[in-house]
Amino acid sequence: xxxxxxxxxxxxxxxxxxxxxxxxxxxxxxxxxxxxxxxxxxxxxxxxxxxxxxxxxxxxxxxxxxxxxxxxxxxxxxxxxxxxxxxxxxxxxxxxxxxxxxxxxxxxxxxxxxxxxxxxxxxxxxxxxxxxxxxxxxxxxxxxxxxxxxxxxxxxxxxxxxxxxxxxxxxxxxxxxxxxxxxxxxxxxxxxxxxxxxxxxxxxxxxxxxxxxxxxxxxxxxxxxxxxxxxxxxxxxxxxxxxxxxxxxxxxxxxxxxxxxxxxxxxxxxxxxxxxxxxxxxxxxxxxxxxxxxxxxxxxxxxxxxxxxx
Length: 310
Prior knowledge:
By secondary structure, the protein is mostly helical. Helices cover 76% and strands 0% of the residues. It has helices spanning 3-6, 21-38, 45-51, 55-64, 71-75, 78-84, 87-114, 116-135, 143-162, 171-185, 192-199, 202-211, 214-229, 231-241, 243-261, 264-267, 273-307. The protein contains 17 helices and no strands. It is globular and about 65 Å long.
């Protein structure tokens, strides 16, 4: 690799055009929509980014935000580096996402504390609908894809049932959770909140947001940053060269999570029959909501997902 490839030069720096206040406000609202989506298991912030028409710009901006761009800070100027990584776009989007996460945390924690089984039923419906959406991206089923589906299911069940760290308050585990979840948050159809639920730290992260528990939040954000700078590039390669196989594996994880997330009081038969009916009805409502939503935006969503692989 020569120097021109390794370090962006002034001529290779991509500078964004000036953005109006109205456009910034619209971008902030799109970020808030992404943040709200990422607080709900089964709904992907990446999907919202596709729908709102900012997904490709987001991915390209994140890819430019890497250590190879740092020499611009001292070789040229911080302003040029900021424009190169599309800093205004990323900062505005981040503010929108963060503000939405803070606003949604209280409501979701209240519902989980007072209506846990019902909310889990709704989440399961969202996740099943996401699985239905993802299977359309897999194409024709082959033996390798079927094996990957089963592998995704098996790994999810093993991690959820045997992992002694699930729900751990260890900051190391929180760091790992952020590192993994952020990769899901930027992928259309995969929910970062679902990953946090699977890892057993969903409520803990929401509680940290509500109470501004800075040690947990800073460690979680550090994991997210590392995930964006490392795993996101690996995922980009997987989706570029093994897109359908990757979706098959992820779909297996989604399907297995239904058992993991099913309310334990109902799984053991301890819950009342009426509550079971409500859980099933809310699961149906969640499923219907996502399917209806996907039908409304299907053409744009498909073009956005396929566009990232061109």
